[in-house]
Amino acid sequence: MVTEKNHFRAPIQDTIRRKSPFEQLIEHMSKVRECIDILGKGLIRYYTGNYKGFSDITKKVSKLEHEADIIKGNLRNHLPTHLFMPVDKGKFLWALREQDAILDHAENLAHMLDMRHTKIPKSVQNIFIEHIKTVMKTVSAMEDAVVNIRDLVETSFIKKEREQTKEFIYKVHSFEYEADKKKYDMTREIYKIEKNLKPMDVYHLLKIADWVDDIADHAENVADWLRAMIAK
Amino acid sequence: MDFNLLLIIGGASAIAFYMAWSIGANDVANSMATAVGAKAITFKQAVIIAGFLSFVGAVFVGPHVAETIKGKIININVISPETLLLGFISSLLAAAIWVTISTWKEMPISTTHSIIGALMGFGIISCGVSSVNWGQVGFVAASWVLSPIAGCILAFLIFKIIVKLIFSKDDPVKSAKIVGPIIIGFTAFIITSSLLLKTSLSKRFDISDIEGVIIAIIVSIIVGALGIYLLRNIKAKKVEDYLTVEGIFRKLQIITSCYVAFSHGANDVANAIGPVAGIIPLASNGIMSVKADIPTALLALGGIGIAIGCITWGHKVMKTVGERITILTHTRGFSVEFAAATTVLTASKLGLPISTSHTVVGAVIGVGLARGLEAVDLSVIKKIVVSWLLTLPIAAITSITIYLILRTIII
After folding, report:
1. How many domains does chain B have?
2. pLDDT tens-digit profile of A18-52?
3. CATH architecture observed for domain A20-78+85-230
4. Contact A12 B167 (CB under 8 A)
């Protein structure tokens, strides 16, 4: 990158990074949020057998994943060793990585579902819908935790704000736990009706349960890295 | 005074004016850029504040450092007046050239270091290594390392105070309305006492040191109380209203940017007019006296040069730098400015020529170490150290070359 010369001496302008890394993390977060919103609503329609427009959703998810990738690349490639941050850079990058993993899984899930329209049997439809709703809640709780970084940075990580972030993190954990339980319920229900289904359908239903639950797992990982980041 | 001497003084003053202009355009402007970048003041206000207060600082507190540059770096008693005259002119010219080149190349060098390096070079070539006051030079060099560190520590402490006494409280806005004005009152104390202790102002009005301190205390209490009074109507809009806290510091930052401009003028005017202050008595009656007061007219010339520098080129510097460092919020900018200005003003009173921009960088790093900034690029430290190591020899060699050329032409 060639920087234009202005012809004056100002060492102060080389001291501060032009873009805030935390703002970029939050920007990346907003892509995750948008993506999960679109995908979640699409999934609920998909579960009830309405496949219309799901291809568009897949395209949108891919687009968001790509945009987020650019933010991630920008952020990760511009954190050299001589840059001093108020938090551990390694932990910060792990949080970013896990946040990005949510998008990777979402994209994968969308494409797989779009390739083969698997009919969700009536008896498990409700629990499938409840599951995706819980996963969405996990991601939204994670977003609250990530966005609270703004206050943490502004106040230079005072106790009050750290406690608040921790509360958001507990919420992520409890939603994730709920999502896990729902996943086992789903699996159990699928096994109950396996004899009435084609083997490929069984495989796909089990896979959907796994893939959707992966999103909540990674949201929890983000929260855990955040927790490690703000630990004193 | 014959025509030749008039020419010499006129020429030297012109170069000094150029140096002052360069200092105003660059150093003052980039020290004030934090306030402009944080939108605490507009470009126009910044230019006016910087111009005016640099001038005030230069005229009233400037002589301390000018004395150092004029008579303490090289041993003026062992060098003949004619040689000194040539030496001061070549040093000034060498510093002006190096400052211009480095500014064009955007190297983080300091005008202070250039002029000291140039003077040393001339001292060594004219009368040997012993003609340089190495003790004094060592002292000055130590202050170059110490001033960014002092800025760093002070900024760290001020920012920690802001965090502990304001952000950690249940009602940050309420605390900010009290703590902010108290720090500003303290600022007023430092400025007033620097103006009244051992300056031409205190001599003229016959103010003793104790009286000066008392006046400074009274002024600081008035300023602090006025600050609390003016901020009384600000209310928090919600529980964690950090935005309003920043808003309060935005107002307080106007005062700290004045503080920066004032301190800057006090320290850096000497780089421009110090050598000329040495030339004037030499040219008029052939003797160099350390005692001779620095003419106020000369200090004013330096002050005006700085002010014009701010007004002409400084606008662009402030705008560009300000846009690049918008990440520096008001509480951070306040800490940086307070720390840097206090360090620079203290050094000025001690007669130590230091670099303001390096002190500002130290202060920014201090806030960063206090976990106040999202990302501080520490590679700037390396750049600054390299600039120290480069500036001294380059300025010295340039000064030596100019001196030798002038000597062959004239003698």
Report:
1. 1
2. 788 999 999 999 999 999 999 999 999 999 999 99
3. Up-down Bundle (1.20)
4. no
